[in-house]
Amino acid sequence: MKILVVEDEIALADAIAAILRSEGYSVDTANDGISGLEKAMSGKFDCMVLDIMLPGMNGLDVLTYLRVKEIEMPVLLLTAKSETDDKIKGLDCGADDYLTKPFVKGELLARIRAMTRRLGITPDINPKFGDITLDMKKGELICGTNSIVLGRKEFQMMEILISKSGQNVTKDDFVNKVWSTDDESAYNNVEVYISFLRKKLLMLHSKIQIKTRRGIGYCLEVK
Ligand code: CA
């Protein structure tokens, strides 16, 4: 997997690149917004780590431009502690996640893994619960010889449900991890997408169902 790191503090850019390379990622760096954007537009990268305060063109403008051009590569924004407003702006501009500087190595790697896994980029063990399996590469839910493609949000929600192996998932968990915004519509969407997933489980003739735990959340269980 190829990662682009756009960060104007050269020592930090190099440190991030070294951490990512040590984990087997292939990395290229850019030290200003304009060259970062050019590299991001090349289509050679699977994922980008993007600082906000950059010379030439700031990270939020780079991100906005990419999304307008319908380049959907996952973007992890780097923000300084003083830039809390920028986090919100960044998520609104289409960032997938953000990391506040200074951060530790493990935190960076966990965010990169989570971000790319959500989008099915890295091959992973396909999570299972009861008779269902989530195919991380194809984005399909499988039960026996039946399979069905899940939409991106359905997929993310099912991955969270399976990862909890029958334990409760709150609406807040879904909203925070799948929608990255907490407005009212996101909460309503959780119910809508749960009903989509229930229909798909029925279509697969699975013995697994999504149980509503009133006022608490949702969990997977065997019928
Ligand atoms: Ca900077």
| Sheet with the most strands, sense and barrel status | 5 strands, parallel
Number of helices: 8
Bound molecules: calcium ion
Low-confidence stretches: none
Globally, the shape reads elongated
Which superfamily, in CATH terms, is the homologous superfamily of the largest domain? Response regulator
Which keywords apply here?
8 helices; 223 residues; four-stranded antiparallel β-sheet; single chain; Arc Repressor Mutant, subunit A; Rossmann fold; five-stranded parallel β-sheet; binds calcium ion; 2 domains; alpha/beta
Task: Explain what this protein looks like in three dimensions.
This protein has 8 helices and 11 strands. It is α/β, with parallel strands linked by helices. The chain folds into 2 domains: 2-118, Rossmann fold; 128-222, Arc Repressor Mutant, subunit A. The strands form 3 sheets. The protein has a 5-stranded parallel sheet, sandwiched between helices. The longest helix is centred in the C-terminal third of the chain and has 20 residues, at 184-203. The radius of gyration is 19 Å and the shape is elongated. The mean pLDDT is 89.
